[in-house]
Structure formats: C-alpha cells, structure tokens
Amino acid sequence: MNFKKYLAYVVMVLMLVLLVACGGTATEEAAPAEEAAPAEEAAPAEEAAPAEEAMAVTIRYVLWDSAQQPAYEQCATAFHEENPNITVAVEQLGWDDYWNGITTGFVSGDAPDVITDHLAKFPEFAVKEQIMDIQPFVDRDAVDLDVYLSGLADLWVRQGKRYGLPKDWDTIAVVYNADMLEAAGIDPAVMDDWSWNPQDGGKFEEIIAMLTLDANGNNGLSADFDKDNVVQYGYIHQGSGGFSGQTQWSAFAGSTGWHFTDGPWTTKYYYDDPRFIDTIEWYVGLVEKGYAPPLADVSSLGAQQLFLSGTGATTTDGSWQIGNYVTNSTFNVGFGLLPIGPEGRKSMFNGLADSIYVGTEHPEEAWQWLKFAASPTCANIVGDTGVVFPAQQSGVERALAVREQQGVDVTAFTDEALDPNGTFLFPITDNGAEIDSIMGPVMDSIMLGEADAATALPDANEQVNATFGE
Length: 470
Known about the structure:
It is built from 18 helices and 16 strands.
C-alpha cells in the first residue's frame, strides 16, 4: 500500500472512530434524558392541582331574614371581586320554610353549602354531624377570634369543635308609638328607670294601663275601663314564646334572677322555678286585664302588624327588627330600655353564625366565604345598612351612625348589651327541637287560659329534663 492510500485509510478509520464515539456519547446521554422525562412531566401535573381548584365554583348560601339579604348580596359581590373563581348565590326563605328546607336538605344530601345558623338549632346539627367542624380551618388560617365582641365566638363551640364564626348579635328593647305616648302625656324618658315586678307589674304595668283605651276613651286605670271593648292596647305581646320566649317573656323572667339552665351545654332546665311561674302568670294577666290582645289575634295577624297598624302603644322586640319598624311605621316610632326588675334590667343576648354543610362538594370555597362573611370587610358592609349589629365593633359603630343620621335613637339595644350585668344567654343545650315541641304547646295552652301555669309548667319541666335522662 502506498503512502497516500495508507493515509486515506487512516483518516477513514479515525472518522469512523469519531462517529462511533459521538454516537455512543449521544446514546449514553440520551438514556438519562429519557429517564428524566417522566419526572419533568410529573412536576407540572402536581402544580396543576391548584389550577383545578381555581375553576369557577358557585357556593349556595341561604338565610331567612329578607331584610339582611341585600346586605349579604353586597358582601357576596365584594367577596367575588377578591375571589373571582368563587360566586356566592344568596338564597332566602321565611323562618319556617327555611328550617324545613335545611333539615330536608341535610337528609336528601342537597343542602346549601353554607347556612345561616341559630343557637337553638346548631347543637342538633352538630350531634348528627350535619355541619362541619371548622376549627381546623381556623387554626390553619390563624383566624383572630378576638375581633368579635366578647363571648360571641365561644357560643359556637361544642366539645372542642367549632361550628361557626359570629356574624351579628342582638338584644331586646321596648318599641313604642311616640304619638300615643305624647297623647297620653307620657314622657319616653320614663323608660330610663321604670321598674317591673311579677306581683303588680310596677311602673311598667302602670304605663301600659295608661296607654290602654276602651271605646269610650277610658284608660286601663279608670274604674270605668271596659276590658272587653278595647280600641288601643298598651302592650302588644309577641305571643306565647315557645321554649325561649326571646322577644316575649324572657326579659321579664330574667330580671327576677331566674335562669333557663346552669349554663351552656348543661342538662337541666328550670321552668318549674316559682319566679318563672310568677312571671308567666303576670304575662298572661296582661291579656286577662285587657292591656294586651288575645293570643288568637297575635297568632293570626302578627304582633308587628298589630303594632304597625296602630293597635297598640308598645311592644318588645329584637334589634334585628329595627329597620322594619323604622321603615313601615306611619307614626313616630321610638326604642326604649326594658324595665328594671327585682334583679336589674336584663335582656337575652343572642347571635347568629354561618355553618358549612358537611356534604358540600366545595369545602375550601365554602370556608373562604364563611370566613369572609365573618370578616371586618363584610361586617362594615352590613353595618352600613343598619339592618343588624355586626359581631365586630367597627360594624356596630357604622350601624349606629346610620340610625343616627336617620334621627333614630337605638342605643337602648346597645346600652343593654354593654351593661356587664345586663344580659343573659339564649339557652344553649342539646335536644332543642324536643324541648320546643314540649314547651310550645304548653305555653300556648297557658296563654289561651286552657292550663294553669303553676300546674302545667312543673309537669312540662319534668318532661324537658327527661330528654336528657334526668
């Protein structure tokens, strides 16, 4: 082989070697690349989960108070602006239809994602595990429970589990027809320190009697008063009151020192207490004396409608009804303090919260809405409507400002709430539905004069306590 052929042969071999070497290197590097491919594809797959959660979701939220619906629709709009992937559909049903719908929905599995809850109802829902324990969410998001008015957040805890965050609170006060008081020569300032007792009704009953008129213009203090021909009642009672008497007799009974139970989650009621029996006998006596309408009239027409129609001069009602009286009264309406009883002035203190249906398909989104509905942002929106007193002080101040601008003094409600000895809690126990089913008919029968309080109430109390195995 000559030199040129040999050189060409060497070059060709070197080129083959280089080609093989390059190919081998590419092959060796390709294997890890192929092995890495699944890992590189897995990472985006894991990151896709939040994107899936960010898909558009509609949360059903239901409440019973039509007056509050516009306020919470505003909150829902503000929430959607912060959470564009979540829409809150606000639904409203009247009180009876509301609870029937909720209980039916729990059973059928078609309940709204978030419900407005009540202290009388949530214990049963909690026992049946129909609403969600939100404490893990509260812990995870470090929700500050101190932003709520003192004690409100604790009301929604049962056996270490939390079933709601406070959204508002309420107290009871006297609602009065200022024109009728003026015609009777009564200064509303009398309510600042008027008294009450279950024996003769005190100054409170005296004022009620003065405001009661028969067809001949005689008031309830006149010897000529005709109790069977009344044209203006001094007091429109709110009915028999069932087991809680919130707007009916609770304030009077509470001011004697009587209490429903020994505290939240206890298992003994005291409807057999002589102080309670005396209070109910006095309460029924207002009807018997002609100072208040028969139960049948209140049941058929409604206490508020009777008052708004000019049938009576005073009533007792909750702070959540302020807007109804202010908006629908054709006369000057005012709000005064409850009378001072033997143990002071007392109002039931209650509040609402939202709860999450345990069967919701969107627990995270439901929680985000619940948290927002109990936030300062929503509280301020609600406060600006004046419809209720929110659970946070900033919202309360806004609600007061709205009413002040309207020339309406509603401080009777807040003064009672701020009095450290001025309130007592709504009874919070298990077996609420059973207790109401016992006490409701009994209280009706007493109000109708079909049963004697001194006999019927001890018997009913025994039945109530038997629901706890007492």
